[in-house]
Predict the 3D structure of the following.
Amino acid sequence: MEAELKRLVMRSPFAVRLEAPKREGDATLLYPFDARVAWVATCHHRTSSRISWDLCSSTAVRLEPLFADLVPVLSSDDRLPAGPRVRFSVEVGASVDFEAGPLQLRGVVKNAIVDALASRGIASDVDADAPDIVFVARRAGPPEARRTVVGIDIGGGARHRRGARVAGGLAPLRETLAAQLILLSRWDARTEPLVDPMAGSATIPIEAAGLAVGAAIRRPSDLPHRHLAAFKDLPREVPDLFPGTVPRIVALDIDQACIPAMVGNLRAAGLTGPAYDNAIVIGQQDVRTLTPDHIARLLPSVRNMQPGVFCFNPPYGVRIGAEHGDEQLLDLYADMGRALARFEGWRAACFVANPQFVYAFGHRATLTKPASNANLSGLFLVFQL
Ligand SMILES: C[S@@+](CC[C@H](N)C(=O)[O-])C[C@H]1O[C@@H](n2cnc3c(N)ncnc32)[C@H](O)[C@@H]1O
């Protein structure tokens, strides 16, 4: 997350220095607020799952003291949206250590916001379907100093929803995880081909293409920016941050039925047409029969092909276990390991939720990082082939 933001801010239209973030747990980074950095992050950042602008916090663990804490600080907060009328909703994260249920916590935060806005002369409606602003409340901090933090969701909700996927496939990888996987592979889009040999609905190839050119995943008009004074003077348009990069991406799958899904998703993401003829190639192929010659033939415009990277998430045997018995799956992993061994000098990065994968695949991982895909725990693994 951190390296991606650094790279994006450096290529953004702003001359801004990115401060080092603080860490909250192992999945949250806290940056001092700068609207230009927030603009870059909310429009372009692919690996974050949510982006919130924290406004205030309270150590209260009961409802009445929380309300009493929040109203005065929010009332005097000029970062709140301006009126005359604001439609808003409130979302609450896990709150097991708060002495009331999540619905009650949400109710109190909502009431505090209504009061605070009213004290600023702003009428408000709670509207979960079409809010101008989504406020978020989350519990944060170390066990001895837990707080309820209230902020504004400036990232447009759950960011793995890119709005482009039209066909899901059997076990699609979350877009945020696909982006993390590609960054962990250290793919250099200018010089290295990227191959997803089990691409399913093409989540990884689509993320790769977006990362290569620095394409935005949200437009300012899709975000609450227009309701917040801090973003008033920032651009309305979102140019690619790495224009002119022509990546070489190959998306393959053994299943013929995946091909229309890939085409549909590539088209929905704006990645089809003459401009992408040489950039993204799709095809039906069994990974077990893959050779470097084969990839070279799929990328005829690449002269002297350099070693590249494989990025993929193999079948896990959990969701699609009915088709792949355990033994069959381990055989597939072993066959994949043998096939990818033909690609000397390449790297392979995968997200896998089957603990037996590493053993069966037969290569030693140079990086191992826990992660989860839609409640399925697994590992990011990177291999030098
Ligand atoms: C977990 S899914 C990949 C999901 C994909 N990353 C996405 O986001 O849609 C695994 C894929 O591996 C494919 N697959 C299984 N055996 C294969 C093989 N021998 N060669 C190529 N693809 C294979 C399946 O058809 C399936 O699409």
